[in-house]
Amino acid sequence: MSVSVRIPTILRTYTGGESEVSAEGDTLAAVLDDLDARYSGIKGRILDEAGALRRFVNVYVGNDDVRFLDDLATPTPDGVQISVIPAVAGG
């Protein structure tokens, strides 16, 4: 299953400056594995040492936050857009 992944500015050093890349996988976990195979190190910026999504990184499959779906087991249908969005804090 081919999907497109929107890459935030802070992670574009891993993708050679590309803001959107293609990846393969039928779940978010599989897509992240494929991304890391193509762009070494990027997965470690999205997942923590325990293999869970980092606290200040939000990931959307389509328009849905994966934390409210099946987290890393969230299905990624062919053609869907995945967005990686760093959380913004401030006041």
From TrEMBL:
Its recorded name reads MoaD/ThiS family protein
The organism's superkingdom is given as Bacteria
